[in-house]
Amino acid sequence: MPSLQKTSPPQGRPQASPVVCPTHRDEVAAAGSELIGGPFGRRALIGGSALTPVRVIALVAIGMFALGMVQKIPCYDWAWFRGTTSQYTHACYSDIPHLFVGRGFAEGLVPYFDRLGGDIEFLEYPVLTGLFMQLAAWLTPGGGDMMHREQTYWMINAGMLMVCAAVMAVCVARTHRRRPWDGLLVALAPAFALTATVNWDLFAVALTAAAVLMWSRGRFLAFGILIGLATAAKFYPLLLLGPLLLLCWRAWKWREYFVALLGAGGAWLAVNLPVMLLAPEGWKQFYLFSTERNIDFGSVWLLISQRTGVSIPPGTANTFAVLLMLLACAGIAVLTLTAPRRPRFVQLAFLVVAAFVLTNKVYSPQYVLWLIPLAALARPRWRDFLIWQACEVMYFLGIWMYLAFTTSGNKQGLPTDGYHFVVVLHVLGTLYLCAVVVRDILAPERDVVRQDGSDDPSGGVLDGAEDVFVMGAAAHPGRHAAAVVEGPRVEWGVPRG
């Protein structure tokens, strides 16, 4: 039965070390370190070099982002402008140059206020992302041929997104104070390099990573403001407030949660309210488009539709997606309140965002960016991370080869059956990572973050806090090794001796 009780963190845990060296604890990291001189040695300088872990990670992230830009060179030079198939066969497609023209930025149209005159009447992106796109358009010089202007627009966006990439990597490296090198998982993620400039998702990802850092430092209002801004750029960051509610419920940290919630609501309104009032039709385009769009690439719904030959209307897909998402959230709630130890914040954040992308009507290649920082913090093990990344890279290549197949009259590229295989592969890869995170929650002694004596480095006020509301086996600390009773237990508000 659920109970209100105070339990302290597990007794007898080892004292947390100052800094965790992955090459001492991770076989894959140790093997990979041979490329740069081998595992961290006892005579290595600590703090005596300008190349601190955070700086190294920032530089590596910028380098990987630059490699992703190099990968787009065939499209930048000609494939975006001289044929649709070639941008797929070179796997260098990007929405950015196409939407420069397709959403009126090249003509000087104002997002949300000016009609586009096509199937989509207004820009179908959230307001803060629209501002990001507009800022890049203001920085793009007018005049000259359209090809040159599209190239310039993409390059300016790439420069702005590179800053976002560095912010994301630095925030991840600083979130777990004793594990800064886990930021290399983000910086070296191949899917990050490949998808960073496909769309504008990296902007919202950077804001979300900064928000998680603020929560880990106990800055609840700053966390809420950043989550509100991130939600004004992309919908998914709002989902992090759900797991946080459950964790604050279990630890009885209501004041901190509501401060964060008010900050999120205030920041979101501050960005959206002017457009809502002055251009209501343009403002709601994002929400209408999200509701009315058909099932799309990468989703299990498209796979089911193509395999069965049955068309799935948007309304039906919406209904089933919402039901499955609610079911997944209910499972996460039960897991949170019954786990032997309170789960870490980023573990639940990863699970809820993964549930969202898996049940959604579309699972675009760049959505992997939403998960990369959370995955690096939730399960910082190179083997599991690279297994998942391999699946995502296979899907990244598969989607473009499939589009090459369909746009070339079935002459080149990946046929439908092959595309279905890579869809299943990247779904299974995400589910695999979810499974190991759930296993860590159920068996916290296997959680690599907690093996150095930490509790919840990203949890802020939750880190080391007492449990108050628990259910299941965790509600009976006398029968479970992970809790120690302090004082009388209360079940549904009724004291029990």
Summarize the structure.
By secondary structure, this protein is mainly alpha-helical. The chain is 59% helix and 4% strand. The strands form two sheets. The protein has a three-stranded antiparallel β-sheet with strand order 2-1-3. It has a two-stranded antiparallel ribbon with strand order 4-5.
Please provide a written account of the structure.
With 497 residues, the protein is mostly helical. The protein has one domain (3-11, 50-496). The chain is 59% helix and 4% strand. The chain has 22 helices and 5 strands. The chain has helices spanning 22-25, 27-32, 53-71, 73-79, 84-89, 95-102, 127-139, 146-175, 183-187, 190-195, 201-216, 220-233, 241-251, 254-278, 280-283, 285-292, 300-308, 314-338, 345-359, 368-378, 382-407, 416-442, and strands at residues 3-8, 467-470, 484-485, 489-491, 494-496. The strands form 2 sheets. A 3-stranded antiparallel β-sheet has the order 2-1-3. A two-stranded antiparallel sheet has the order 4-5. Strand 4 (489-491) and strand 5 (494-496) form a beta hairpin. Helix 11 (201-216) runs parallel beside helix 20 (368-378) and helix 13 (241-251) runs parallel beside helix 18. The radius of gyration is 24 Å and the shape is globular. The model is unreliable at 10-17 and 478-497 (pLDDT under 50). It is found in: Cell membrane. Belongs to the glycosyltransferase 87 family. Pfam families: GT87. Keywords: Cell membrane, Membrane, Transferase, Transmembrane, Transmembrane helix. It is a multi-pass membrane protein.
